[in-house]
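[09:14] KT: can someone run the structure on this one? pasting the chain below
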Amino acid sequence: MLLGLVLNTGARAEPVDFSLPDVQGKQRSLSEFRGKWVVVNYWATWCPPCLEEIPDLVLFHERHHAKDAMVLGINFEDIPAEQLRAFVDENQMSYPVLRNGDIDPPHARLDVEGLPMTYIISPEGEPVARHVGSITADELEAFIEKKTRAQAANKQTRAALPEPQP
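[09:31] RB: done, structure tokens below
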């Protein structure tokens, strides 16, 4: 059921980075998480599909954050910090949640077309897919597993190629 994930194809893109405050007020940047797949999820407390996917995002994060992938939530609305903190605690959102406000996304290449909006960022920091609407832990796992296998196959192919002769 990966039909909703739109792959970015073509030449390798430059890594993206941004910095936003978390629910405690500490500045966090996307580059902190290089080396892992990062599921960047834009959401809002008033958005029913956003609320629907929170348990799946928590499940995915719990399964993967110590290994190969994590979720990074970006709250895309203008609400008081205390209200957001309470919401995050009440919904047991174990992944980092950053505050964006409701004006502009933190990076031009991570635009918000609707909520919820999810980007998958490679371990190298490159956006490799995007999805508008709810997403499940199973969809995220299947996509990342497929991309990881493809990357491993590409590395094996490159390693098997003979060295160019001068």
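[09:33] KT: thanks! The CA atoms of residues 21 and 27 lie 4 Å apart.
[09:34] RB: yep, looked fine to me
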